[in-house]
Structure formats: C-alpha cells, structure tokens
Amino acid sequence: MKIEKYTISIYSENNLGLLNRIATIFLKRHINIESLTVSDSEIEHVVRFIIVVELTEDRVKKILGQIEKQV
User: Cα 65 to the chain's mean position, in Å?
Assistant: First the structure.
C-alpha cells in the first residue's frame, strides 16, 4: 500500500471533549497528525475539524470508522 497525504473534514455539534476523543483515536494508533484545525462552521452550533495525516488508504478508512462512532 502506498502512503499518501489525506485531509479529513469532520462536521459535528460542539460537544464537550470531542476534540480529545478524536485526538485519542490517532494517539492510540501511533499516527502523527500533520495538521489539525478546529473552527466554527457556517452552520450555527456546528464545528469543523480539518485533520491532515499521511497514511495508507486502508488505515484512513479504519480511522474514519472510529471517528464516526465518536461523532
């Protein structure tokens, strides 16, 4: 598998501790986050997470599954 740079965009309601839970998903798997940006979105009470990582496609799909469970 080829390692590529992926940009993951997540939109969620502003829940207490969500950033910590998402970061922990990467931490437990020893995945380095190249860039992490969290900001308000255009929609009221919804935040946007933009995460950049270098991984294989299979690992990204597994990570997205874990993130969906948290969001």
Answer: 10
Residue 70 has pLDDT above 80, yes or no: yes
Cβ atoms of 56 and 1 closer than 8 Å? yes
Q: What's phi and psi for 64, nearest 5 deg?
A: -60, -35
Instruction: Give the chain as a 3 state SS string.
Output: CCCEEEEEEEEEECCCCHHHHHHHHHHHCCCCEEEEEEEECCCCCEEEEEEEEEECHHHHHHHHHHHHHHC
pTM of the model: 0.86
What does the angle CA 69 – CA 20 – CA 15 come to, to the nearest 5 degrees?
A: 65
Q: Rounded to the nearest 10 degrees, what angle do helices 18-28 and 57-70 cross at?
A: 150
